[in-house]
Design brief:
Elements lengths: L4 E2 L8 E5 L23 H15 L4 E3 L9 E3 L14 E4 L4 E7 L3 E7 L4 E7 L1 H6 L1 H11 L8 E4 L9 E3 H10 L7 E3 L4 E4 L1 H11 L4 E4 L14 H7 L7 E6 L2
Parallel strand pairs: 3-6, 4-5, 9-13
Antiparallel strand pairs: 1-2, 2-14, 5-8, 6-14, 7-8, 7-9, 10-12, 11-12
């Protein structure tokens, strides 16, 4: 069975895909394409789900990933075995063909990058902490060190929690406005003492400010679209014991 996924026009024919929760073998609260190694799911089922993702996008490719810590570290991958121990990081970049960079999310923002002319790709996990700390900037810098040119890099923002579902408190807002008063534009009014945060728009603005001119936003809401996507916040609100993670991938043929 082929797992369904969506692609982004700016990335063109680069092998990539944003996957959801459909098309896998996990069951219960983790049904069905759960790719999260830390979810408590049967490792054999996770391995099969991850195999399906890789086969759907880059057959024969070596799927790689890191232990995501909500930071801004980007690792350069030259060989798939480099990440066997899953080092702490939140972004990856490569110019090596046959390597499939993978990012896990469950409300956070997955960002895929490509410079088709230079043959360099990247992937980033942008939770609010990593986004504010500049994980996308670090990814761009790593790609440039591999020969990419910022003016030629396209970026795609995948399924994540949307503004209408992302309620935060005033202290959260202050973190962003202290960093840059202009960040106020990414928040809209909520209940007293709270606001609604547009994290996808914030990440897109960071990319644009860094010189990326081709940016796509998928627009899916992981919190609301329960049949299609896993959501950490939704799982917490429903009192579920665990939550699945979806995988976003990109690689060079």
């Amino acid at each position: 069975m082929t797992a369904p996924f969506v692609t982004a026009e700016p990335l063109g024919d680069i092998a990539h895909g944003f996957f959801g929760r459909r098309g896998g073998v996990s069951s219960g609260e983790l049904a069905s394409l759960n790719c999260g190694l830390g979810s408590g799911d049967d490792p054999a089922l996770i391995a099969e789900n991850r195999r399906r993702v890789a086969d759907a996008v880059l057959p024969g490719g070596a799927l790689t990933g890191v232990y995501q810590v909500h930071g801004n570290r980007c690792l350069i991958v030259d060989d798939a075995t480099d990440l066997a121990a899953r080092p702490d990081a939140d972004a990856l970049a490569t110019r090596t063909r046959g390597i499939l960079l993978g990012i896990l999310t469950a409300d956070c923002v997955p960002v895929l990058f490509a410079d088709r002319d230079a043959g360099v790709v990247g992937a980033a996990h942008a939770g609010w902490k990593g986004a504010l700390a500049g994980v996308t900037d670090a990814t761009l810098a790593a790609m440039e060190s591999l020969g990419a040119h910022r003016a030629n890099i396209a970026a795609a923002i995948g399924p994540c929690i949307a503004r209408a579902s992302y309620e935060v408190d005033d202290g959260f807002v202050q973190r962003f406005t202290t960093d840059d008063p202009a960040n106020e534009r990414f928040f809209s009014a909520g209940k007293p003492g709270h606001a609604m945060f547009d994290i996808a728009a914030y990440v897109a603005a960071r990319l644009a400010a860094a010189g990326v001119t081709r940016i796509a936003i998928g627009g899916q809401d992981t919190y609301v679209e329960a049949e299609d996507y896993f959501s950490y916040r939704r799982a917490c609100h429903k009192g579920e014991n665990t939550y699945g993670r979806q995988l976003s991938v990109i690689g060079l043929n």
